[in-house]
Amino acid sequence: MRKPLRSLLSSPVFWRGAVSIVAFVILWELGARSKQWMAPELFVPLKEMLGAMGFKKDYLPWIGVVPAPSTVLIAWIAVLGQGGYWQSWYMSLFRVMSGFVAAMLIGIPFGLLLAVSRTAQGIGFPVFEVLRPIPPLAWVPASIIFWPTQELAISFVTFLGAFYTIVINVLGGARSIDLHYFQAAQSMGSSQWDIFRRVILPGTLPSIVVGSAVGMGITWEVVVAAEMISGGGSQQSGAGGGLGFFIWSSYVGGSYEQIVVGMISIGIAGFASSELLRWLGRYVTPWLRVR
Amino acid sequence: MDMHQPGAAALTRGRILIEDVVKTYPTEGAAVMAVDHCSLEIEAGEICMIVGPSGCGKTTLLNAIAGFHAITSGRIVMDGETLCSAEKPKAEPGPDRIVVFQNGALFPWKNNLENVIFGPVMQGKLARKQAIDKGRAMMADAGLAGVERNYPGEVSSGMRRRVEIVRALMNDPKALLLDEPYRALDSLTKSVMHEALLEIYYKNKVTIFFITHDLEEAIFLGHKVAIMTTRPCRPKKVLTVDIAHPRDYSVLTTKRFRELIEETSEAVHEEALKAFQAGEREG
Q: What is the pLDDT of residues A78-116, one digit of tens each?
């Protein structure tokens, strides 16, 4: 964050990372253009050998059919000027954030309640544990039927993606607080409320941060799949239906470069939101920054 | 008379009487007895060292005084007030008896100064501003100036222990209950900590109930050393250390210190052996 540029440029970690990414892009470019520089006949003996072993030739993947990074870049620059692309970004981001924020707002108090009250745990936890193994994507059809709009349905599914992880982390974090902190606080005259506010809450904060970061990752996975399955939601406005739908419609439309554009866009969005959370996490747990 | 001997000074608070205390843990089958008819008298302002092998039940006794665990029978009285008895088996934890734990219990999310002022602010005894002034002064007194704004995780383990003792003293307790606080420290740090503890003690007279398994530590620090039997725990031998306070590290090389070690080491060794053999059987 506060690292000056110079120390970044002199860091071997940075250069290793940069070299790794550049090498990956070069290999991809070479692979995608392999039809141009490599005679396909070269592989005939290999294919025949595999064929003799019982593999059908069609089963072999060929990186030559994947769009090259250079063509992807061109396609990307082309969509940058289109409102539909940015609309996709906005819609996915909005769904992720609404689902995620709802999961935080409901999940953190719920997890804390389960942690501090045996009664609440006895009532709430069994239902929670029965529902938890159901993958969020299995909820998509039921969710579309249940919620009045498809927009709410997708947000609900992303909510589920983050909710379970956050609750489990909060619960586990609160339970693993050292008993001695409670005893010390009690000896020094803390009320139950003081103990909750000054021991349980800060003691759980690191787990809340971890749970949120993991939950955020799941949210992006879920939103993309949900958009693909549900057909992207509000079509009537003419706008696209999120980055997941952007990829799917590119596939259906045969624009392979755009598929990759969509994939990388999601990668960037996921990375940026995780980074933001990590930064916020460090900010709220300053004592973990030491050493 | 030496003013550093307990009872000699005007100190009249912090006298602890442990009377016939029994603690059994119910388990499947037979109940396990952790403390067996244990009686001990701790004078006001005395440093009483409790020596016994690991797992002998000394911590159970400390938890009973602190009010973290109930006793089965007997009575613990502090300054005439019954803390716990058969009728009221669990004492109320309070700022008059502060525990310094084996692994430390400074709140890692609060900086050292915030930790130190926690007690008085919680109890409403001091306004935040006053508590900060007092906390700073006491930290400076204990050689902790400059680390007020650091988190406990940023300072050495020896410093953390000192911060924790200052935090305890900020509550103006009658007694400090220390549960092997220096166990995790290396021996060099430990020797520095012993002198630091005595220095703090000479400035703030409180009763100190100090659990350890280190005989040298016990005789160096204590007015009184109680050697405990291993499970169930009761005093096997109570020794009055007739070396005058204030003490410093030169005491360790005196003839009297060595004599006292020799007098007691056999009793300690016996119990350690018993504990070891019991462990062998269980294992």
A: 989 888 889 889 999 999 999 999 999 999 999 999 999
Instruction: Check CB contact of A287 with chain B, cutoff 8 Å.
Output: yes
B67-81 residue pLDDT tens: 999 999 999 999 989
Residue A30 near residue A219 (C-beta atoms within 8 A): no
Distances (CA, A) of A159 to A105, A126, A143, A216: 11, 20, 12, 10
User: How much is the average pLDDT of A62-83?
Assistant: 87
Residue A31, in any domain of the structure: no
Taking the Cβ of residue A285 and every Cβ of chain B, the question of whether any pair is shorter than 8 Å is answered with yes
**What is the number of residues in chain B?**
283
In a domain, A248, yes or no: yes
CB B75 within 8 A of CB B82: yes
User: Among residues B181, B177, B179, which one has the least CA distance to residue B163?
Assistant: B181
Q: Which residues contact B140 (CB under 8 A, 6 or more apart)?
A: none
CB contact under 8 A, B122 and A203: no
Residue A27 forms part of a structural domain: no
State the CATH number of the domain containing residue A107.
1.10.3720.10
Which chain B residues have any C-beta within 8 angstroms of a chain A C-beta?
A: 66-68, 93-95, 97-99, 101, 103, 105, 107-111, 118-119, 122-123, 150-154, 171
Q: What average pLDDT does the structure give for chain A?
A: 87
Residue B270 has what pLDDT?
Answer: 85
| Among candidate residues A74, A171, A82, the one with its CA nearest the CA of residue A121 | A171
Chain-centre distance for alpha carbon B153: 23
Question: pLDDT category, B2, cuts 50, 70, 90?
Answer: very low
CB pairs under 8 A between A and B: 68
CA of A270: how far to CAs of A96, A97, A128, A267, B213, in Å?
10, 12, 27, 5, 54
Domain with A284, as residue range(s), is 67-288
B105 to chain A: which residues are within 8 Å by CB?
178, 180-181, 183-184
* CB contact (8 A) between residue B118 and residue A186: no
Give residues with Cβ within 8 angstroms of A180, minimum separation 6.
Answer: B101, B103, B105
Q: Looking at chain A, which residue has its C-alpha nearest residue B154?
A: A290
- Contact: A184, B68; criterion CB under 8 Å: no
Q: B5: which 2 tokens?
A: 């001997």
Structural domain count of chain A: 1
| Residue A45 counted as domain residue | no
Cβ distance B68 to B98 under 8 Å? no
